[in-house]
Design goal:
Largest sheet: 5 strands, parallel
CATH architecture of the largest domain: 3-Layer(aba) Sandwich
Number of helices: 13
Order of helices and strands: HHEHEHHEHEHHEHHHHH
CATH superfamily of the largest domain: P-loop containing nucleotide triphosphate hydrolases
Distance between the termini: 79 Å
Strand content: 5-15%
Length: about 300
């Protein structure tokens, strides 16, 4: 709708995770390096956390696409599976038989890992949305990792989720699993500079001829209302482009962003848009009046004191 108005080839702020439009802030670069290190260094368990919409799933997709070593990859992004369905899904991804007998599958899985170790192949299990895993599935994941020490180097297990994942792992029942976590990393929100560069990056990837469709004040307000969350940035920027198109404006200013943020904010929802109040500026003449009043009061107190 607004692409022709702004000279864009496609919508720049789509919400669907796309490795081709991945903007790597310093935190994201470090997170991706940590994921790759977890694979090549045989670190076993790795925990990656980040807030909603910070790009965790996109990083997982980039990692999966960049693996260049012989490997077997299984990504589970549905944390609500029953135990039987969990093993069926895992068996399907690893091309192992499963007839509903968990004990038999664990034996086959152990033999499979041993074979991979001898053939210098790796097995990578990634559990996305791991913060929502029920306790029973955490236990099943731990059972999968109960391998002979020499075979453990062939298996890596990554738990990816929101910060609540760390709270889940503090459960005393998960102590054996928690003690096996070798690497832990948290993705930080985008800084103001990162937010600016992120928006420019997405616009350029969409074919924008003019880089600065947003004023500096608008960019600052976007950062404040979204807290540097990439998903929220996409939402408010897309709405701003629609509003600017409707108003036949070619530049998005602070007023447009404030209007969009007000429409998108959900009362009482802390994870939504937080619209800051306009800054109140004190005029210089009022400052002078205040100083004069304070001086007069001080003089009056002094005279009263000297006169008893």
């Amino acid at each position: 709708m607004y692409r022709q108005h702004f000279g864009l080839l496609h919508k720049p702020f789509e919400l669907v995770p796309d490795a081709g439009t991945l903007f790597l802030s310093e935190s994201h670069k470090e997170a991706l390096s940590v994921l790759r290190y977890g694979v090549v260094a045989n670190k076993g368990f790795l925990v990656l956390t980040g807030g909603i919409g910070t790009g965790k799933t996109t990083l997982v997709n980039v990692l999966a696409a960049s693996l260049d070593c012989p490997h077997h990859l299984c990504v589970l992004s549905n944390p609500t599976l029953e135990i039987g369905d969990f093993y069926y899904y895992l068996a399907s991804k690893l091309e192992l038989p499963f007839d509903g007998n968990k004990a038999k599958f664990l034996i086959l899985f152990s033999q499979f890992i041993e074979k991979c170790r001898k053939e210098q192949r790796r097995v990578l299990l990634i559990f996305d949305e791991a913060h929502a895993l029920p306790f029973e599935l955490f236990q099943e994941i731990r059972f999968l990792a109960n391998l002979p020490p020499e075979d453990q180097v062939a298996l890596s297990i990554f738990l990816i989720g929101q910060p609540e994942l760390l709270e889940r792992l503090t459960d005393e029942r998960l102590l054996p699993l928690r003690q096996r976590v070798a690497i832990r990393f948290h993705i930080e929100p985008l800084s103001m500079d990162d937010t600016r560069e992120y928006i420019f990056f997405r616009l350029e990837r969409a074919g924008a001829v003019r880089r600065k469709l947003f004023t500096e004040k608008a960019l600052e307000l976007i950062h404040r209302t979204t807290g540097g969350n990439p998903r929220l940035i996409n939402i408010i920027c897309d709405n701003a482009l629609v509003s600017a198109f409707a108003a036949d404006a070619l530049v998005i200013d602070e007023a447009i962003i404030r209007s969009c943020a007000g429409e998108l904010a959900i009362p009482g929802e802390t994870a939504s848009f937080s619209l800051p109040r306009p800054e109140k500026r004190i005029e210089p003449e009022w400052i002078a009046v205040g100083i004069a009043i304070l001086a007069a009061m001080g003089l009056g107190l002094y005279l009263a004191y000297t006169n008893g």
